[in-house]
Design brief:
This protein has one domain (2-174). It is built from five helices and two strands, in the order αβααβαα. It is mainly α. Residues 190-200 have a biased composition (Basic and acidic residues). The chain crosses the membrane at residues 45-68, 83-104, 139-162. Residues 180-200 are annotated as: Disordered.
Length: 200
């Protein structure tokens, strides 16, 4: 959850910088130039949405587990939670794959003006760079996103295991073998019975 939040914050920073980059170039050119970066914007929006979903689902489940560890939930709740976990995991995977492809192969484009003029605009407004993979912020958010995907998969597996355990055994703690009251009802195991010595 925290890794996905880190990826979401980094993607949000990158998104805001590319939007400012587009606004600055277009205003400076008096709107003769058009800046095209919808590909990275779409990848980052997808990342932000599904990372927020990860934080919402798994964060809420962690909160409930901490404060009400023995509470029994209806079956529809457990089923809905598992379906959402699978869907969110697939969404994070799609965001990671799309972000990787866009950042590795695509670049921001400037059209509507001569090529040398577009180059001058790119040199003057040099951050963020036109080539997405040339900016460390983009690399960082993709790496964090893949790490977050692995953690989300692991969390989904643990959620399924916990749900199956509660369905079979319930939310109450299981008693140890031999019963929990052995030490209180006088039925001590043979090795724990006190040894009585006679001095007559």
């Amino acid at each position: 959850m925290l890794i996905c939040l880190a990826a979401e914050c980094t993607a949000t920073y990158s998104l805001s910088k590319y939007e400012d980059h587009q606004d600055n170039i277009e205003r400076f050119s008096q709107f003769r130039a058009q800046v095209h970066n919808n590909d990275i914007i779409a990848a980052e929006v997808l990342t932000i949405v599904f990372c927020v979903f990860v934080a919402t689902l798994f964060g809420a489940d962690f909160f409930f587990l901490v404060f009400w560890p023995r509470r029994v939930y209806p079956r529809w709740y457990d089923k809905t939670k598992r379906v959402l976990a699978v869907g969110i995991t697939m969404g994070v995977a799609a965001a990671a794959l799309m972000s990787t492809i866009v950042i590795a192969k695509h670049s921001e484009r400037i059209t509507g003006v001569p090529e040398d003029t577009a180059g001058q605009y790119a040199e003057f407004f040099f951050r963020p760079p036109l080539r997405y993979r040339s900016w460390a912020v983009n690399i960082a958010y993709v790496v964090l996103l893949w790490l977050g995907l692995l953690a989300t998969i692991a969390s989904t597996v643990v959620m399924f295991m916990a749900s199956a355990h509660d369905s079979q055994y319930g939310a109450e703690p299981r008693e140890p073998v031999g019963g929990i009251n052995n030490h209180y009802n006088g039925n001590l195991p043979e090795q724990e019975k006190p040894i009585r010595r006679s001095f007559a």
